[in-house]
Each structure stands twice: as C-alpha cells, then as structure tokens.
Amino acid sequence: MSNYLFEATLRTSDFGSAGSRRLIRAGKIPAVVYGHKITPTHIVIDARDFGKAVNKLTESTLITLNIEGEESKEVLVKNFQENLLVDKIFHVDFYEVIRGEKLHTSVPVVVEGNPIGCRQGGGILDIVLHEIEVECFPKDLPSVIRVDVSALGINGHITVAELTINENVLVLTPGNEAVATVKALKAEVVEETEDANAPAEVISEKNTDGTDTE
C-alpha cells in the first residue's frame, strides 16, 4: 500500500525552460512518469504538497499519483532537481511500479541501538552501508531495513547476510559486505602517547673553536 498520495494534472503544453519557470512561479512542479514498458507521461504536481514530504521520501517509498483524467499510478521517486539557495524543486522523475512485476531498487538502512563496544569500550560506530539493493514485488518492498547494533563489541561487525529481511525480497548487495562496524581507538591513543613520551632530540651546535655553544 502506498504511503503517500499526490494529485497531478497532465502537462500537454507549455513545455521547455520558459514553461517550467512559469509553472514554478505558480507553485507547481513539472514532472515525468516513466517505466521500462510505458511511454513517458509529463505531469504537473503541487510544489507545497511535494515539498512537505520530500525529506521523508526514499527510493523505496511507494507513492500514488492521482492524475486528473487518467488512471492512478503507483510510482517511486527516482530523481529530483532542486535549488537549495532558493529552496525550490524544479523537476521530479517518477518511475511507475507495475503490480505483479518485480522491481529493482534500493532500501535505506536504519541503524538502531548503542553498541556495547561504544558504551563500555570507547569505540566508535562506523555505518558502512546506508542502502541495500533489492529485487521484489511491490507488495513485499520494505520501506526501510532496520539493523540493531546494540550487541556489537569492539571490532564487531554486522554483514548484509546477517540482516533480517523478508524472504520474498531478493537481496542484491553481496552478503559479505559490512553494514556497520565498531572500531577501536586504543591503538591510536597508545601511538600518540608513545610519541608524546619520546625524549626530545638534543642538538648541539659547535663554535668555530670546537667548544659547545651555551
């Protein structure tokens, strides 16, 4: 089931950069819906509605587009163009999802918990993978993949193969890749301490007559 719904209208005219600027000034965003079996459909969506949700959308967030005069489409956001200086989104690319057909996308990793190696061992948590590539039917697509790192000790790690993921989801990221690790800082601290305790080098300058300079 889709998590978000946006109203849209077909864009049948006023194409080009000038037309896009007019739409943006009117509080709209030009967008396109494409897929491997469909002809691209040019649409217009409301900038305020999309702007409220954009920070929560990922490549695995299912969205319903209610296109005026057309059948609703279930889509994923594949890309969008924005100008951070003026805080405006200029264009959105949607990819249509077909029920009954598998899709290939990335699902964000959400790390939970405070590793014991950080709490008691002074280590630091390194999140190596932020997304996992998967292939599955739309109904089985997870919004996120959660990883509990609470039990990780110093030099401990969790690999992709150890993740708990729906058996109907094919994981394409290699299973031996580390998702998160806890690194020790002890070796670096010892090295710095040894350098700090090293005796200072004494340099003696000689006068021209061979005696030491005071």
Task: Please provide a brief summary of the model.
The protein has helices spanning 16-25, 47-53, 116-119, 186-197; strands at residues 4-10, 28-35, 38-46, 63-67, 73-83, 88-96, 103-112, 124-127, 131-136, 145-148, 157-159, 170-171, 178-183. It is α+β, with helices and mostly antiparallel strands and 214 residues long.
Describe the structure.
By secondary structure, this protein is α+β, with helices and mostly antiparallel strands. It folds into two domains: 4-96, Beta Barrel (Ribosomal Protein L25, Chain P), CATH 2.40.240; 103-195, RNA Polymerase Alpha Subunit, Chain A, domain 2 (Beta Complex). 15% of the residues lie in helices and 39% in strands. It contains four helices and 13 strands. It has helices at residues 16-25, 47-53, 116-119, 186-197; strands at residues 4-10, 28-35, 38-46, 63-67, 73-83, 88-96, 103-112, 124-127, 131-136, 145-148, 157-159, 170-171, 178-183. The strands form three sheets. Strands 1-3-2-6-5-4 form a six-stranded mixed beta barrel. The relative contact order is 0.13.
